[in-house]
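note to self — DONT lose this again. spent like an hour looking for the file last time. sequence + predicted structure for the chain T wanted, 144 res
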Amino acid sequence: MPKPEFLETFENPYPDREYSISMECPEFTSLCPLGGVESDAAELRQLAGGAPDFGTILIDYVPDRLCLELKSLKLYLWSFRNDGIFYERAVNRILDDLAAACTPRWMEVTGDFNIRGGIKSVITASVEAHQANPRTGSKRRARS
């Protein structure tokens, strides 16, 4: 399972200024949750969740009091590597975990996944400072 406890933050050096932070992880990896490896090769059976999925995770946010620490973000994103998870769930889980860690004024997470079976998927999810966070119950307003 993803490990949000890896996430660390630091104090925003400019909490009174609205500015954006953008990060890109071009090496995101997880496993297909359906176990669709169609082979009897012993080494492929070790992929319990299925074949690997690859993509780029883009994170854009406007910090409030806290900013995300990059090394901890890398370790958190790496924690998805052995999980069978649908793209939609991965992107929304990343958004929930990051927003809970740093409580941004606004945040958007995009998963731009490599082509699989001839189909390209791009999933985007966002929160604004007043929408309810399902994990903590804190109120946040949805961005329209």
